Fold these 3 entries.
Entry 1:
Amino acid sequence: MSEQEKLKIFDDNRNLIGVASRSDVHRVGYWHEVFHCWFICNEQGIDYIYLQIRSKNKKDYPNLLDITAAGHLLADETVKDGVREIKEEIGIDVAFEELKQLGIINYSVVKENFIDQELANVFLYLSENNFDDFTLQEEEVSGIVRAKFTDFTQLWYGERDEIEINGFEINNDGNKLIIKENITRVKFVPHEISFYKEVIQKIQEQIK
């Protein structure tokens, strides 16, 4: 996404106050809308959560694990248009009506010369896809992995220090490498722990 693309901006009460370029949004720290979609699948009675590996070429948080598919909503887009992020990033066609809405979560990160204040429209997709179904937008996403949802939950609630992930990554030569490893929280994009916990709670309500 270009730094000059336009995003809607909001005040602290989520009231629309105008439009600004992406670069200004992150420089000034305007609240803006993003789309998040988490994939969960159930195999033989076990729930798994899918995570993307961010491309090593990403300016922010390269090579870290993140939401299955996510992105900014442009000024001329509605929340429903966010499903394009799923198709663009991981190559899965999903209709908006197939998603379960988890609500809007405020999310804030402040770094040097970068203030990211997001109104995250968060969704859940109950997936029946396997790893072969994913086609990655390699400048954005370099791999897809999954973990047992109970393990993921325990990791963010501090009940375990590491979890096992498995999946694949596309290397520099365009070849698919199989991944199976144990990882800690350090491997994830540093969203606030409260954000991960809120997402987990909302997913749990949907998959009981």
Entry 2:
Amino acid sequence: MTQTPLRKPKLRIATTSLAGCFGCHTSFCDIDERILELAQVAEFDRSPLTDIKTCGPCDIGLIEGGVCNAENVHVLREFRANCKILVALGACAINGGLPANRNPFDVADCLTRVYCDRGDGAHQVPNDPELPLLLDKVRPINEVVRVDYFVPGCPPSGDAIWKFLTDLIAGRTPRLENELLRFD
């Protein structure tokens, strides 16, 4: 009797974005046709590729963006709880990136200058309960949850993300050579 080889279950990969420009997700999509190779060994959970808005248990979570408001904190903690391995993608996730440029300033002063000092007659800071509460500072994600790996760049290139993921999936320690790193 011939035995059928056991088929290895596919990994589950999820992605999400916090405060940033979505450039890391664009770079993830820049792996182009290699996404088909990835789909041979992985299923996508929460991701722009699937348009799934929630994250179930997954093997690898890729997250971009810094933490700038209460909703970011909630999403990040929930995402971390569902990911065996959490990977911080890009400068915003690693150090707050461009959104952290507001850190030297008082949040209330920033909001007043933006919404009340515009000269267009609008003199009120939005105060809708649907708006998430801003944090005093934009934080890198590792100040809120444990991060397993960091992929630097602004944004990291599609090639860097591909190399990182293929190393990780193959059980190798991910290593990115300098030529794969970019800070546009």
Entry 3:
Amino acid sequence: MLTYVAMIFAGSAFGAGSSGISLLLPLLMIGVVYLMMIRPQQKKQKMWSEMLASLKTGDKVTTTGGIRGTILSLKDDALVLRVAPDGLKIEVVKSAIAAVTTQEEGSK
């Protein structure tokens, strides 16, 4: 026990210059986590919000549940889709839209 306490005091006496490095390491880790996880998620969220804002009638969309349909009308927070094969009309919340497929089909 005495040697452990002696090592702590000796480390604090000799390690005065390493305190800057010990503070730098957590800051560096926070920076890496931000760049690798938080920033890409923010970009993805921004693109999704822009996609929802640009929805218009006639767009072909896919919902998060996998339903594909064509937008018939838009409301504040919902939209009406026409779903094949029988032309069934369903109302879906805008936040359930996963992707707009109109542009993808045109490029094929």
